[in-house]
Amino acid sequence: MQTRKRASGTARPLASSTETPREFENADKASAPGKCSAFTLIELLVVIAIVAVLAALLFPVFAQARDKARATVAISNARQIGMAIQVYVQDWDEGFPLNNHSAGASWIDTLRPYSKSPLLNRAPGDKSRNWERPLPGETAIRRSSYATNAYLTPGGGFMTLAAISSPTNCAYVVELKENRTGDHIHPQCWPPAGCAYGGRTVIIDPKTEVEAERYQGGSHYVFVDGHAKWHRFEQTYQPAQVNWYYPGL
Hints:
249 residues; two-stranded antiparallel sheet; transmembrane; membrane; methylation; N_methyl_site; Pilin-like
């Protein structure tokens, strides 16, 4: 082995060309195939926790955006129905389309020729299970998400526009409860008085007929004058206090 002298006169051995410094050995070990570093359990748990927090923050935002999109489509369709009603009323001496108790054509089918845009039978967000088959105890499938106010078609006939004291405050079309298959609601049978049927008094809970909270705690209502607007149900009806369904008010 060769030696060289220090300035002080002492000598130290020179590294042989065949010897590998320790730092090179460590580098070789780190880059050796099959010896890559892995995540520790704690690191994985931290990543999972971060993903969970982000999901918790973002999912409500996505759900809210989806609900707003549905509400936009729903109010657009409600307005189309309102405009079609106005054209129909003008064409039929101010009379309103008849509702139907049978499985035949509904009032919404009657209105189709009077609308410039297609009328949607099914409202966004309507998850009723009886579109394709009847529910237990029912004989008909669901024909529409929308229902008319039976006050305006009494006894199978129809009321004229002139008989309605305040068309802007009289609700004509509502969204129907998902477990219903008819094409109209019965405000004349709501509390407190109810209605006479089959020799007895029948009182119907209005929220078993009206889908009252589908869109952010409210729903869309089409009025006799043709305009459509979002309201909370309590704004439209409270027994013996508020009744936007009775055409004489």
